[in-house]
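Collaborator request, handled under Task 6.
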Amino acid sequence: MADNRERDAVSGTETTGHEWDGVKELDTPLPRWWLYIFYATIVAAVIYWVLMPAWPLVNGYTPGVLGFSDRANVAADVSDLRAARAPMYGRLAAASAADIAADPELQQFARAAGESVFGDYCRTCHGAGGAGAPGYPVLADDVWIWGGTLADIEHTLRVGIRADHPDTRMSAMPAFGRDALLTPQQIGDVTEYVISISAAQARLRANPAAAARGAAIYEAQCVVCHGPGGAGDRSVGAPSLTDDVWLYGGSREEIRRQIETGRAGVMPSWSSRFDDGTLRALAYYVHEMGGGEPDAAPIPPAEAPAGGETEPSP
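Structure tokens returned to the collaborator:
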């Protein structure tokens, strides 16, 4: 069959027959070096499919002749890391606050391990550096709802707040408005009284007459938990009302809304997620954030052997 394709007058190369606005396409062959590389990639891909995991199947994938597995390699690396850290976690789990304070190596390990765990599991709610968020306490100050010693913090981590642990910490703030325990007028008066006894008085300026009426309501409804003058009671998780630190916001509207609805947060129990050494490292890191209190008594040694962070059972 005769080749009737036109040749370009300048280059002498045949055209493909395609033409756009008077511009004709040349049928220029691909460079040999490019073709060789392209063929080599095809061969390499076929070899990879044979040697390595490559093709998805209905319930898995082709494992490849080499049996390579990123999942298995990561699991082995994590296992090796836990084994290497186990002695330090064991020392940490058995150490008191005084022991940690006297051991710079143990301090450094606890701080680094705690920071890692905090970043993975706690930062989402409590913020970077424990900065907190509405409904999630600030961990970088010296205001504590349940206590700020190393032992208190570790216990809170172990049992959680309103969690599924049998010894979980549980506080109960009534919803005085939602449950019609107080009238809107009474809630407003109590709000003014709470402002008047807190450091927020300097910026919010409570109504004196309303605060006076609210004082009597406070004595009848709130003093059993928050104490005389709003001093608070850590044993029942009742925060002090004398400062200007508010879990759900410190505006007049937010303080009133808390009295009306009795909002209550939840923190999981970490005792089933972490072993004793990891819990103590996390507690130490939180304690060191800026407001930890000294322990009055030695922290009891861990009951279970420590070996680093553990994952929950399926």
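The cover message to the collaborator said: "Strands lie at 15-20, 23-26. Confidence is low (pLDDT under 50) at residues 303-314. Please let us know whether this matches your experimental observations."
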